[in-house]
């Protein structure tokens, strides 16, 4: 093959993609914070052998049908709900993601979000900076304890397990729900397997870390929030669409649950006017789970390696593997 062509759908630091540039002709979308327009992507794939995509890029049948030379899609994320895996299989395109390299960084953020929500950190910070702090009071910005409470992790995979390890350090009781039992988490962390409803009824902090699939779509619905304790906090770092956000808003408004920490939303970026953003008991972040400089560099490097290997006819390091 002549020198292969790779298209990167967002501007990335030149330094990070240097190895890839040595083996491929690399073209990059010029913007760092604006996604490549769909029509530009559809144009670029026509001559590309490799794509480095963001989680906001849709890789579907329409795109793949226009990409006769495409061999690999390297997604800069561990989640891959933006990629049609069956269409990739039919078009002989190898999809890759970035597991493991982001696990600990994401777990840090999940735990930070849990603590910020439980102890009302953002609210307290705003209160002070807005000049509202006039007097100290015994219940001023009093929140919920974290230590010795029960954390219920829905999606005890790589990140869920790393969150459970952090929870151990806070002497939390760890329960979890998966489709299959995670025997290692049980023996190493003392985590206890639970049915979904039983977890909702028991946990003080319900942490969602499941991928978005047809099965998990809207899993956290009105029924789920009704089952949770009125004092419970809901932390979502999985995917927004696993939650019925109208039901979440109602549950918060009516006091069915006490608060929420959200890193992901059905629509991203979430519109400023969204009802969830009007609630002071909601801590909201712009999908920054894996956003440390070190980890983002490692994710880019892994994407480049996956592309380089695939274009050289070798097996990539992290092809997407699924048992769903
Ligand atoms: N906010 C952010 O920035 C980030 C978000 N993420 C999100 O976190 C997700 C998890 O990542 P990671 O831990 O690496 O992935 P893993 O595949 O290691 O873990 C996913 C877990 O979810 C469980 N699961 C899957 N489907 C279901 C289901 N229908 N019901 C119950 N449990 C289910 C799986 O267990 P089993 O198969 O036994 O059911 C598995 O334990 C990603 O898919 C992504 O959506 C990831 C990184 C950063
Ligand atoms: O949401 C981020 C990911 O890596 O998945």
TrEMBL record:
GO MF terms, alphabetically ordered: glyoxylate reductase (NADPH) activity; hydroxypyruvate reductase [NAD(P)H] activity; NAD binding
Reaction equation(s) it catalyzes: glycolate + NADP(+) = glyoxylate + NADPH + H(+); (R)-glycerate + NADP(+) = 3-hydroxypyruvate + NADPH + H(+); (R)-glycerate + NAD(+) = 3-hydroxypyruvate + NADH + H(+)
SUPFAM superfamilies in the cross-refs: Formate/glycerate dehydrogenase catalytic domain-like, NAD(P)-binding Rossmann-fold domains
InterPro entries in alphabetical order: D-isomer_2-hydroxyacid_DH, D-isomer_2_OHA_DH_cat_dom, D-isomer_DH_CS1, D-isomer_DH_NAD-bd, NAD(P)-bd_dom_sf
Keywords per UniProt: Oxidoreductase
Protein name listed in UniProt: Glyoxylate/hydroxypyruvate reductase B
Every D-isomer specific 2-hydroxyacid dehydrogenase NAD-binding domain range: 111-289
Residue span, D-isomer specific 2-hydroxyacid dehydrogenase catalytic domain: 6-320
Organism encoding this protein: Pullulanibacillus pueri
Record CDD domains: GDH
Sequence similarity: Belongs to the D-isomer specific 2-hydroxyacid dehydrogenase family. GhrB subfamily.
Class of enzymatic activity (EC top level): oxidoreductase
GO cellular component, one term: cytosol
Domain of life according to the entry: Bacteria
This enzyme's EC code(s): 1.1.1.79, 1.1.1.81
């Amino acid at each position: 093959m002549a020198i292969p062509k790779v298209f990167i759908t967002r501007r990335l630091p030149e330094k990070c993609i240097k190895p890839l540039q040595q083996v491929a002709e690399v073209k990059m979308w010029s913007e760092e914070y604006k996604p490549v327009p769909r029509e530009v992507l559809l144009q670029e794939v026509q001559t590309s052998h490799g794509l480095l995509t963001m989680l906001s890029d849709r890789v579907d049948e329409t795109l793949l049908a226009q990409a006769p030379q495409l061999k690999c899609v390297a997604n800069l994320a561990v989640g891959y709900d933006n990629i049609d895996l069956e269409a990739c299989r039919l078009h002989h395109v190898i999809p890759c993601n970035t597991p493991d390299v982001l696990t600990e960084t994401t777990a840090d953020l999940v735990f930070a979000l849990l603590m910020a929500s439980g102890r009302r950190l953002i609210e307290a910070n705003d209160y002070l900076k807005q000049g509202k702090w006039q007097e100290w009071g015994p219940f001023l910005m009093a929140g919920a304890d974290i230590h010795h409470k029960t954390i219920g992790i829905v999606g005890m995979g790589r990140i869920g397990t790393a969150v459970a390890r952090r929870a151990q350090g806070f002497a939390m009781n760890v329960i979890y729900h998966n489709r299959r039992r995670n025997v290692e988490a049980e023996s190493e962390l003392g985590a206890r397997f639970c049915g979904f409803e039983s977890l909702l009824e028991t946990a003080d902090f319900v942490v969602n870390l499941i991928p978005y699939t047809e099965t998990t779509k809207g899993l956290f619905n009105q029924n789920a929030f009704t089952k949770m304790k009125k004092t419970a906090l809901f932390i979502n770092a999985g995917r927004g669409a696993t939650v019925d956000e109208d039901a979440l808003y109602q549950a918060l408004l009516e006091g069915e649950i006490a608060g929420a920490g959200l890193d992901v939303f059905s629509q991203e970026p979430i519109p400023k006017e969204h009802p969830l953003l009007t609630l002071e008991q909601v801590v909201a972040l712009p999908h920054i789970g894996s956003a440390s400089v070190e980890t983002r560099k490692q994710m880019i490097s892994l994407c480049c390696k996956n592309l380089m290997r695939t274009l050289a006819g070798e097996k990539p390091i992290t092809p997407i593997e699924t048992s769903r």
